[in-house]
Amino acid sequence: MSGIVVDGEVDRPVQDGPRSAAVADLLDRAAPRPGADHGTVHAGGDAYRASIPLADLRRGELDGGRLTIPGGRTLCWNVKDVVRIEVTRGKQPDSVPENPPH
How many domains, the chain? Predict the structure, then answer.
Protein backbone atom coordinates (compact mmCIF):
# COMPACT_ATOMS: atom_id res chain seq x y z
CA MET A 1 0.00 0.00 0.00
CA SER A 2 1.45 3.36 -1.00
CA GLY A 3 1.79 6.38 1.24
CA ILE A 4 -0.12 9.66 1.33
CA VAL A 5 0.52 12.44 -1.19
CA VAL A 6 0.52 16.07 -0.03
CA ASP A 7 0.55 18.50 -2.95
CA GLY A 8 -1.09 21.59 -4.40
CA GLU A 9 -0.12 24.96 -2.95
CA VAL A 10 3.05 23.66 -1.26
CA ASP A 11 6.78 24.28 -1.75
CA ARG A 12 7.85 20.66 -1.15
CA PRO A 13 5.28 18.09 -2.33
CA VAL A 14 5.26 14.85 -0.37
CA GLN A 15 4.91 11.78 -2.59
CA ASP A 16 4.94 8.92 -0.09
CA GLY A 17 4.03 10.24 3.36
CA PRO A 18 3.30 7.89 6.25
CA ARG A 19 -0.27 6.55 6.62
CA SER A 20 0.02 7.00 10.40
CA ALA A 21 1.17 10.47 11.45
CA ALA A 22 0.11 13.82 12.80
CA VAL A 23 -1.29 15.82 9.86
CA ALA A 24 0.59 18.89 11.13
CA ASP A 25 3.87 17.00 10.60
CA LEU A 26 2.95 16.17 6.99
CA LEU A 27 1.87 19.75 6.32
CA ASP A 28 5.07 21.14 7.86
CA ARG A 29 7.10 18.78 5.66
CA ALA A 30 5.22 19.97 2.55
CA ALA A 31 5.46 23.69 3.50
CA PRO A 32 2.15 25.27 2.43
CA ARG A 33 2.60 28.50 0.49
CA PRO A 34 1.41 31.85 1.85
CA GLY A 35 -2.31 32.24 1.22
CA ALA A 36 -3.02 28.51 1.32
CA ASP A 37 -5.85 28.02 3.80
CA HIS A 38 -7.59 24.70 3.07
CA GLY A 39 -6.71 21.08 2.48
CA THR A 40 -8.92 18.84 0.37
CA VAL A 41 -8.62 15.34 1.76
CA HIS A 42 -9.15 12.68 -0.92
CA ALA A 43 -10.21 9.13 -0.11
CA GLY A 44 -9.20 6.22 -2.32
CA GLY A 45 -11.76 4.06 -4.02
CA ASP A 46 -14.98 5.99 -3.53
CA ALA A 47 -13.76 9.48 -4.58
CA TYR A 48 -14.93 11.04 -1.28
CA ARG A 49 -13.44 14.51 -0.69
CA ALA A 50 -13.56 16.87 2.30
CA SER A 51 -12.27 20.45 1.99
CA ILE A 52 -11.10 21.43 5.48
CA PRO A 53 -9.59 24.70 6.76
CA LEU A 54 -5.86 24.13 7.39
CA ALA A 55 -6.18 25.38 10.98
CA ASP A 56 -8.61 22.51 11.68
CA LEU A 57 -6.80 19.97 9.51
CA ARG A 58 -3.54 20.57 11.42
CA ARG A 59 -5.22 19.07 14.53
CA GLY A 60 -5.87 15.83 12.62
CA GLU A 61 -4.26 12.46 13.07
CA LEU A 62 -3.81 9.70 10.51
CA ASP A 63 -3.99 6.13 11.75
CA GLY A 64 -3.45 3.62 8.96
CA GLY A 65 -4.83 6.11 6.45
CA ARG A 66 -7.92 7.04 8.50
CA LEU A 67 -8.15 10.74 9.35
CA THR A 68 -9.72 11.88 12.60
CA ILE A 69 -10.00 15.51 13.63
CA PRO A 70 -10.72 15.90 17.35
CA GLY A 71 -13.33 18.59 17.85
CA GLY A 72 -13.96 18.85 14.10
CA ARG A 73 -17.07 20.74 12.98
CA THR A 74 -18.53 17.59 11.44
CA LEU A 75 -17.83 13.86 11.58
CA CYS A 76 -17.75 14.03 7.75
CA TRP A 77 -14.21 15.36 8.15
CA ASN A 78 -13.17 11.95 9.53
CA VAL A 79 -12.12 10.43 6.21
CA LYS A 80 -11.33 6.73 5.65
CA ASP A 81 -8.59 5.54 3.28
CA VAL A 82 -6.88 8.91 2.78
CA VAL A 83 -4.64 8.88 -0.30
CA ARG A 84 -4.04 12.61 -0.89
CA ILE A 85 -4.15 15.97 0.85
CA GLU A 86 -4.37 18.76 -1.73
CA VAL A 87 -3.45 22.13 -0.19
CA THR A 88 -5.50 24.94 -1.73
CA ARG A 89 -6.37 28.61 -1.55
CA GLY A 90 -10.01 28.64 -0.53
CA LYS A 91 -12.55 25.89 -0.02
CA GLN A 92 -12.85 23.44 -2.90
CA PRO A 93 -15.85 21.37 -4.03
CA ASP A 94 -16.22 18.34 -1.80
CA SER A 95 -18.55 15.48 -0.87
CA VAL A 96 -19.51 16.82 2.56
CA PRO A 97 -23.28 17.46 2.73
CA GLU A 98 -24.42 21.09 3.22
CA ASN A 99 -26.21 20.08 6.42
CA PRO A 100 -24.40 17.01 7.76
CA PRO A 101 -26.58 14.72 9.89
CA HIS A 102 -24.07 14.87 12.78
Answer: 1
* Interatomic CA distance for residues 27 and 85, integer angstroms: 9
Render each residue's pLDDT in the chain as its tens digit; 102 residues: 589 999 999 999 999 999 999 999 999 999 999 999 999 999 998 789 999 999 999 999 999 999 999 988 888 899 999 999 999 999 999 887 776 655
Taken as a whole, the chain contains a residue count of 102
What range does the domain containing 62 cover? 4-88
Domain annotation covers residue 100: no
- Pair 56, 72: CB distance under 8 Å: yes
Residue 48 per-residue DSSP state? -
